[in-house]
Amino acid sequence: MAGWRIPGFAARPRFTSRATVLVLVLCSLVAILAYPTRQFISQRSEISAQRARAEHARQQVEQLRREKARWQDPEYVKAQARNRLHYAMPGETPYIAVDPAGRGATPSSVAPPASSDGVAAGPAKAAKPWYASVWDSVDAADTAALAPPSPPAPASAGASSPHDH
Q1: Is the full-model pTM beyond 0.85?
Q2: Residues 6 or more apart whose Cβ sits within 8 Å of residue 163
Q3: Please, which residues bridge with residue 120 across strands?
Q4: What crossing angle do the helices spanning 17-71 and 74-85 adopt, rounded to 10°?
Q5: C-alpha gyration radius of the chain
Q6: Percent of the chain, pLDDT > 70?
């Protein structure tokens, strides 16, 4: 059959001018639409990222609303004042733990002064306002953070520390 030829039909080339024009039109359409398609896809990803951010912001707003509702409760406010500000109710005795090594402690916060008979006196009247004490503690913390750590002093056998009692 390969040898048969139909009279009147000549052998045609594989690519006709129509096929060439069609291929050129399709290539130009791909080239024209490539950039807008890429922009469309990138904008879709930006939209999904913005939606995720908006959802995260909604969750934060809801969390802040819940926290605001908690702050409306007087018992929650009292608990926060006790924990954060170390407040105490009337009749309670507040205690503050002091670093046993004495690092960063100011003389006014270590212990109340002793009276002449050797017994610790009650709460002494502060010689300076509360905000000065707060500022002194901030300065002490700052200098303790900036100072290089000093090596521990060797303990002598006969010396007793104030914490051995």
Answers
A1: no
A2: 100
A3: 114
A4: 90
A5: 42
A6: 64
Residue 92: per-residue pLDDT: 87
Q: Name 100's Cβ contacts closer than 8 Å, sequence gap at least 6.
A: 163
Report the alpha-carbon distance of residue 78 to residue 3 in Å, rounded.
105
Per-residue exposure over 64-91, b if at least 16 CB sit within 10 Å of its own CB, e if not: eeeeeeeeeeeeeeeeeeeeeeeeeeee
Q: Tell me the pLDDT tens digit for each residue of 58-70.
A: 999 999 999 999 9
Q: Position 48: which residue type?
A: S
Please check the confidence at residue 124 and state whether its pLDDT lies above 70.
no
Question: Measured between alpha carbons, how far is 3 from 75 in angstroms, rounded to an integer?
Answer: 104
